[in-house]
Structures are given as C-alpha cells and as structure tokens.
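Technical appendix A lists one of the benchmark inputs used to test multi-chain prediction within the project. The record comprises two sequence entries:
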Amino acid sequence: MKKTKLIHALSAFLIVPFFITGCFDAPKDMVAPSWDVSLNVPITDKSYTLVEIIKPENNPNLVIVDNEVYDSVYFLFSDKIEKIVHIQDTIKMPVRVAPEEMAIAGAGGGSNSMIYNPDPAYQLDSAMFKSGFLKMTLVNKSFTGSVNYDLKAPGFKNKYDGSSLVIKGTLMAGENRTVKVPIQDYVYAQLKRGGMNTETTQRTDGFLILGAASALTDVDFVTQVTNEEITLSKMVGKLKRTELSYATNNFEQAFGDDVKDMRSKIRFKSTKVELRSRTFGAMKNLKIIMDSMSITGYTRQPNGSLINPVKLLFNGKPYFSDTLVAGQEFVKTFDETNSTIPDFLSQMPDVIKMGSKNVIDNLSTTSKGTISNEDYIQFDLTMSAPAHFAVADAGYQDTVEIEFTQEDKDNIARGNSANLHVDITNLIPLGIRAKATFVDENYQPLFTVKNTSSSVSNEIIEVAPCAVDNNGSPKTPSVSNIEVVLEKSDFGKFKNAKYIVFDVYVRSTGSTNVPGDTYVQVRAKDSVRFKVYGGVNYNLDPEDM
Amino acid sequence: MKTFLLNILLAVTIFAQAGGSVGTSDARSVGMAKTYTAASRGIFSIGHNPANLMFSDDNHFEMTTVFPLPNLRLRTGTDFLTIEDYNYFFGGVEQPDGSVDGRELTIADKDRLKSLFNDGGFFVADFSTSVLSVSYKASDAVGAFALGVEDIVSFKLNFPEQFIHLALDGNTAGKIYNFNDADMKGWWLRNYSLSYARDLAEIPQDIFKKISAGITLKYVQGFSYAGTEHVKSYFETGANNQLITHGDFLAYAAFSPDMNVKYDFDSTETDNESSFSPFPTPAGTGFGFDLGLSAQLDEVWSFGLAVTDIGNITWNKNVAQYSSNQAFYLTDITDDDILDSVKNSFVGEGQYVNEISTALPTALRMGVAFELHKLVASFPGQMLVALDYNQGFNNQPRNSTKPRFSMGLEWKPMDWIPYIRTGVSVGGRDAFGWAFGLGIDAGFLDFNFASPDFHYLLMANNAKRVALSLDTRWKF
C-alpha cells in the first residue's frame, strides 16, 4: 500500500511540471523597445554685461573709457597712425659754382685772408660734417721761381688731434695744384667776430682762410676756393629753410576686420581725430612747418587695389597746415565741428593713407637753432569714436562649421521635433535680426531655423534694442521672446549639414534700415539676460545608449 | 537524544519555517493558500504557530531533510508584467531577414505599458530552503520541542509609477514626478530556532478541550542587507522647464566581510576577492521570538493565535548609509557643478556607519480550522477547512502591513488518492492568489508539492509570477 502511495506521489510530481511547462511560451531574449520621448529642460538663465560679450582684449581697436563723462562707454580707436620723418642727409650746402679767390703778391713774400661761404643762407656757429670737400686750387703765376705757401683755416680743427687745418707746400714756377680737404675730418667753430681776420677773429660769417706765401723772387700766388656738396651732420646757427621730402604712409586694417561690415551703415557722434607731433634729437630753436597734411581712406578690393577714396576734410579743405616748434609737443584735435571725421569713420576704410610735406626753418630771421643729422620728427594720428552712434541694419555673415561626428548626426536624426525658447531681456541699445541656415558642403541650403514668434518672418530671429534716454543711454530693457523650432524634416536634413550660415543685422534703438537721429551709447556695463529653455522629442532606443 | 539534537544544531542542518505575513512557506501550507495558524501541524508549525507542535501524538518525531527530495520554496515575479506582456514589449519584432529588432512603441503601446504600472511595479524574489529540521513531542505533560535552521534570501522592489511615466513620456512641463512609492529591500538571513510548546492544562476553563502555548527563540544571522528606509524624492518641471528637484532618501546596506563588497565611496585599494562559504561571517546578528497559542474546542474546531518574528537584527559589519536631503531649483543645465549636485541628491552620498538595526518581519496571525467530514457525516473522505488572518507590522521582505485573509482546504477523498489542497488568499502585497497543492502521506514519509499562485499556471502566458514549494517530511 505504501508503495502504491509512493508511486502516486512521484507521478504527481512528474506530471504537474510537465503540464505547467507545456502551457507557457518561453520568455524571449530581451530586446529593448524604442519609443518617442520628450525632454524639457532649462538650458541657461544668465546675464552678461557687454564687456563679457565684447572683450576689449580680443579687439585692440575697442577700448573702454570709464570716467565722469563716459560711463564705461566703448571707444573705437583706429590703430595709431604713426609717421616718422628723418632729417638725415637733408642739411646740405650746395656746390658753389664760382670759386672764391685769394691772391698773395709781393717782393719775396706776402699774405692775405679770405672768408669763404658756400651758401650765405647758412650761418654756422659750429658744425660737424658728414661729407663734402673744401677744394683749393693753388696757382704759382710766376714763371721765374718757385713759391712756398702756407694756408690755414683756423675755424676747422682736426677731430682727432685738435690741430687747425693747414695746407703747406711749394709750387714750382707756373705750377697749378688742386688740394681737396675731406671736411668730415674736421669740426668747425666760427671764430669770434673782430675787425681783422686773424687766427682768433674774423670779420664776417664764413670759413676764414689765412694765406701766406714766400719766394726768392716776387710772389704771385693765387688760391681759388670752392667746395663739393657739404652735408652737415650737426650744426648750430642759422639754418637755411629746408624742405623735407614729401612722404606718404599706408596704414592697413586701421579699424580691424570686425567693424568694416558696418561701412555706411553706422553714423558716429562725438568723433575726433587727434594729431600729435614732436621732434626728437638735438633739434631746437627751429620750427617745422607741417604743410599739406592729408588723410585719405580707401576700400581695398579683393585683388588688392584701392578704391573709393574718402578724404578727411579739415575746415573744408582736404589738407591742413600748422607749425611745430622743435622740442615742443604739438597736439591738434579735429572733431565733427571742424572736420568730416564722422563721415570718414562711417566709411570704415580698410586703408588709410597719410601724406605731408614738412619744411624746417629758423624760428625768426634772427634766431639761431640746432639740428643734427640724427634728428627726426614723429607724427601720430589717432581717430576715435565713442560708441555713441546710430547703426541701421549693419550686416555681416558668419559661417560656422558643424563639428559633429557622423554618430552625433545619426543620433540627432532621431529627433522628431525640438523647440527652443529664448527670453531675452536686453538693456543694450542694440538689437539684431538674424537668420541661421544649415547648408551642405556645397553651401546649398538645407533648412532654415524657424522662429514661430517672429512678426516679420518665421526665418528671422529678432532681438529688439532697449529704450534709451535723451543721451542715448539705456533706460528700459526690451523683452524679446523667441521660439525656435525644428521639425522632423529638419532633423532628417541635418545629416547632410556641413555649415551653419548666420546672416546677422545689427540695429540701434531708433534706427531702421537707415541710421536714425537717435544716437545710442553702448556701454560696457549694460547687460543682456538670456533665459533659454527648450524641449526635444526624439526616438529613444536604449540599445544605443 | 541531547547529543543528537546538539549535533544537529551544530551542523546547521536543521530548519525552521519562515516568518512574515506573505512569505513562502512549507508546501502543505502553501497548498492551502498559506493558511497555517490553526491548521499547521508538527514541524511545519515552526514559524507559524509553535503551539501547534502540541497537536502531534505523544512521542512523535518528525524530520525534514534533503532526502528523498530537497525542501525548496521559490517565488519570483512581478505584479505588473505577464510573460505575454514581456514577450510583446521586450521580445522584439522579427524582421523578414530573421533578425529581431526592438519594438517601436506606438502611443497605444505606451499607454498600455503605463497602465501595467498603475500603482507602480512590484518585483519580488523569495527563496528559502531547509536541509533538515526536527521536532519531537514527548507528551502533553512534557511538551514538544523543535530545532531548526532556515536560510532565507528575499528581495522586493517597488518601481515608482511616476518613473515609468517619466521614462516613456519624458518630463512634461508643469508636472510633478513623485517617487515616494519607491522601495527596495533585500536580505539573506539564517535563522537558528529553538521551539518549545506545552499544554496549558493549568488554566481553569471548560470551554476548550485543549489549550496549548508555544514559543520559538531565534538567533538570526544576517549575511547581506540592502534596503531603503524612506524615499521622498520628487522633481517638477516648471512652466519654463525649470527643474525643481528634491532628493530625499535614506538607504542602508551591509554585507558579510567574506563577500568583499566594495562601496563606491570607499577608495581603499584591496586585492581581496569575494569567496563563497556555506558559513560566511555574518554582517549582523539578532534575536527574535515567536509566541503562539492554540485551542482545540472539540474534535472539529481548533483555533490559533500567534505573533511571530518579534525582534531585530543589528548589522554592524560593512554597514553603509546612502542618504540625501537636498533641494534644487535648476534653471541652467550648463552649470556642471549644479548638475552634479542634483545628480548626487538623487543617488545620495555614501558613508560608513557603525551599525543599523532592522526589525524582523513581525506578524500577527489568527486562524480557525475545522474538520468538515466530522460535521457532515456523509462527506466523502476527510476535509480540513481553515481560515487565516495575517497582519504584518512592517514591510520587511516577506511581510506586508496590508492584511491578508486566506481560506484553505485539505481534502483526502479516498485513502489511495493524495491530499488535495487548495485555497485562496486575498490581501497582502499580492492581492489575490489561488493555491493548489498535492500531498502524499506514505506513512513514514510525506511528499508535498504546491503553488500559491496556481491560477497563473492556468493562465499560462498571462502569468506574472512563478511560485513553487516542495518538501518532504519524515515521521516516526
């Protein structure tokens, strides 16, 4: 009996599991499903001052001026336009065509003196020479005997031993001889003025030459003095009015690359151009007449040629003239009242060319000055404009390469839709209108980011400038609510996207398509707040995570 | 006898029965829909009502062992996903080329999946086993004794409903996602129990034919524990997508040193590898006890009352606490520091703590049983009918504060037909269960087999859980 029960029990234990397992489908291997899911997130909520957006250190042409007048206003400065004019080799005494002649005659000997002055416009109290020669032609007119001569120029001292310039020798009967004295070996100091020409005095200005001759017979000796062009390395005295050569300088990228897109779309207020000049070196008691200084701006074409010349007018003239006193700083400022600097700046020239002619002269007819060959004159021209302007749809285009991997693009292609809300509280008197176009590698447009909140076009993203007070300073922020959407088809096209082309137009408060009468002040301390949030609906496949 | 019992105890080869109001049990009780307070007998009384030890005959000895069949109790499954649902959602879709792709969920699919997770998703895995247990009833005057050891590995997880909505739909502006219903607990315990029961003949009364009382003392070793104390985390998506988050939770974990579990916050380098041993060093120990009363009104009616698993486990080795209580108002996800803080507020920061205490799955049990064939003389064979009310006092693994009512039948129509057991259980964590089981009384040996979720066996692919109990009992 117990055996029967045992058989029953074992049968039950065997049959029941068989019965059970026959009714079940085996669970399949797990394969995660995929589904569409929405993710809504805040992206950012931050305020940026303008100085955080436009960093002056990234654009040396922009400087923030913070004082009582300009409350952290940006200034647009041109690069310093610097020009240096060297005196080098311009102080010259020309060749005197007709020689000065000194004759000595007498029985057995004689003497004479002369004062040679190659250019009476110069009055040298002292001088050093860079080059040139005193040229003396000695003639013994006697045909019967030789003559011994002794010529001295007591104003000339040898640079090395301090000895006076002496020319001594003997000429045979009827002999001619030419002696060239290299003048750069001597320094010159004019002798004291006196009633007689002696070794210590001279009667008038010029190079004093004392001559003596002796012979066994009658002396008939002649010295003819002339010169080869004398270039002075330094002089003290009266300077001959000297015109320096006309020179022009080109200045490339005077305002940097960033602002040239605003050409003709921007009008500045309170602009100025400042010229600073001064002499460097030994020059003193002289004046520099700055004559016909001109400033011209050009637009550079891609082939390098310069077009559209714009002349900066000074008091209605395309040039200006003034006088710089050596050793003193010259500062001249032009603004919109006495120049056309606002118009000039509005053109944002690529190249600025500055030209000038300079004349060095004595301060007065009686004054004496000092000048050396090492001296130079420096001209600094700076154009500046506070960011106090009206700008009307100044546009620029920027292209950004999409640096997503193919895997990234494939993941993005799983998107169904996306929206991005951008709430902008703008306390900057500049607004933008922008369009973002995704293009392929051949720059063929694929799709444009759509803004469903735009009143202009659903392809335009618009941020309004803030309201300003009478001074153009920000008063009340503007609030712009932008909703950018991407549709399913956009995500599909994204696979082929290579670049995003941004077309951006900047507009100041009160300006539309042309600059208005409202000049706004763009200050570093003004801010814009971005509150960005959005959502994306995409196909989630856990297998790909 | 003492030496024998001591040897058994030291060898840790004897078992007692599991506690808790909803956990798996011996196959006889399981076949009766876990109705045991008044109906359990002999060695299967341990853990349910130790007073029932006194219902055995005098000088009666029982033992369970791995021979001829091991005693196993297994229960695992969910309350939300059937096999058919699983195969539909996670079985993929076969493509014409024979490959299998993941199913693309439609809106209707998502709605159905969400409906499956109404009130969250509960997952349970419960396993206990016994190699040998022993009981001996000497006499009514001396009482009955039992010794046992039981290993319990139990895990439960409540998946928050809102999390499913979040995963399937994403975060909707203006909606609050609350994860308060998230709960997880799991442990591996070993109970060493010593039971004693005796008649209370000293009590002057003339209502009941017999009143017995029993007590079980338990020494509990815990080898691993992980559980949440509370989860009050939530996050809200505001009108402008701002995220308001509040990570608030507290969780503990403890593991036997032999497991060499390395916590993520512990940077200590170690070359030790985990090792398995049938006798690992416990991470925690505790004491508990069961109290039971049983009363036999007459030959037909009997009653039972028990409170089981009164006590605690103190975990004091490798105890880690993970906690967070931080709120954030997030409007900028570009700030990595804040993002990290938000993330940390949901996963918490871990640290070692000296010790924690966890309650045993304390439960109150009340039951009544009657033998129908003694009431109805013409009833074919023998039928025991029993009713139970089980009330857990905490939500530890195998326990539920939701009351559970059950009714079980044990019918033996004829002598050669096995015991047929069935019953229904209502309440508790599983809400409903139809149990069925078979039992063979082969004289000195019982064979028992049962499932508390027999209806799922009949529903085949719509089954959400698999639960089986299998045991044998030697009787002398």
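Helices of chain B lie at 2-11, 27-31, 83-90, 107-116, 161-169, 336-347, 372-375, 454-459. Chain B touches chain A through 51 residues (CB under 8 Å). Comparable benchmark entries are summarised in Table A2.
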